[in-house]
Amino acid sequence: MAAEPRVLVDGAGKVYPDGLEAVASLDLEFAGGSTTALVGPSGCGKSTLLRMIAGLEDPTSGSITIDGDSPHAVAERGELAVAFQDPSLLPWRSVRQNAALALTLTHRDVDAAAIDRMIARVGLDGFGDARPAALSGGMRQRAAIARALITEPRLLLLDEPFGAVDELTRQDLIAELPPLWRERGTTTLLVTHSISEAARIADRIVVLSPRPARVVDDIAVPRGDPAAFERVVAAVTEALSRSRAA
Hints:
Rossmann fold; 2 domains; alpha/beta; six-stranded mixed sheet; three-stranded antiparallel sheet; 9 helices
């Protein structure tokens, strides 16, 4: 497998035609194989930044590259996957068929055995033939993650992937799903409103200011150190308070 990509945000900003500045000029770098959480107040521009990295929107200033290529080029090669808070599964297709469509759209062979293995890995063994309407919210989110990971993306972008499920389901998903992309070494960017979620999932937390998004703090998350969790949560909370007071 190719080395996982480095993402470079070089002075990237976003101003919409109505004059709304969503993202100020940002300079960020995300190392290959890392998991980074973007946190900040509602409406601060987190999702806009993620959409620009995904190639779904273009910056109006600066640039974003993924190993030197544009996000559009990386997406066209099928090396980038996105999962949103709304799983957006096609309702007339089964879990298995939704995953198969992702392979087809990225010009990959549809490997039925690989699809079934991925469905089992996300905790949906036995539900491959189920349609989205027959699944709970947490199960639909598992299916969406399976659809994203089945293409073996080098870059995974997640926008509030656990935001629409109940707390118990969220804790299960946080415990069970991140190891799937960590073991592959996939470069992952996660947008979340939850400080504790960010601290449990990420290697690094980038704290953004109220709109237009600017970097307030950049906090490393020690992995494998349970005692560090409270320190990280406190540091992120303090940074968010500082950004609102500025």
